[in-house]
Amino acid sequence: MGDEFTLGRIFLNLLIATKWTIILSLIAFVFGGIVGFLVMLMRISPIKPLRFLSWIYVEFFEGTPLLLQLFLAFFGISVVFGINLSPLAAATIALTAFTSSFLADIWRGAVEALPKGQWEASSALGFGYFKKLRYIILPQAVKLSIAPTVGFLVQVIKGTSLASVIGFTELSRAASQINNVTLKALLVFALAGAIYFLLCYPLSVWSQKVEQRLNQQT
Fold first, then answer.
1. Per residue in 176-187, pLDDT tens?
2. What CATH number did the domain enclosing 29 receive?
C-alpha cells in the first residue's frame, strides 16, 4: 500500500491538509485579534479592576503551554459543562485565548512605547480618553506593532500543529498519518516542513517591508 503513495500524491494530500492549517490560523488570528484588542484596552485602562483582570488573563494564557490549553478546551469544557466540542471548536477556543493574550501584550507594549508627551498633547487639545486613543495614540501604536504582530502570526501558524493532539487534522497530523502508511518519514516530514516554511517566510519578509515603508514615512 505504501508503494501507491507517489511523491505527487503525498504532496497533494499534505496540501489538502494545509488548507485546514490556514483556516485554523485565520480563525485564531481574527478572533484572537478582536479579544486581544479588548484585553489591551483593559490593560491600559485607568480603571484598576479592569487592569487587574486583564493582567490575570494575559499571565495565565502566556504562562501555560498551548498544549495544556488545548487539552483544557477539549476535555475540560466537556467535563465541567457537559458540552462535547469538536476538535475544530476546541482548537478555536484554545488558540483564540492563546493568541489574544499575546496580541494584547504586543499592542499594550506599542501603546506604552509612545512618549508620554503624546498623551499630554492630546489632553491639551481637549480630547477625552477615547478620542486620545482613536486619533492620537492608536494610529502611532499601529506602526510600532505591525512587525511583532505579523511575527506572532508566524507563531500561530506553527502553533496549529499542536491541535493534532486533540484529533484535528491539519498539516502535522496529516503528515503523521501519511508516514504511518508510507513509512517514508524523511520525505513526508521534509515536505511538511517545506510547506510550513512557504507559509511563514513570506509573512516575515512582508512585515519587514511594511515596517521599513512606515519608518520612511515618519
1. 999 999 989 999
2. 1.10.3720.10
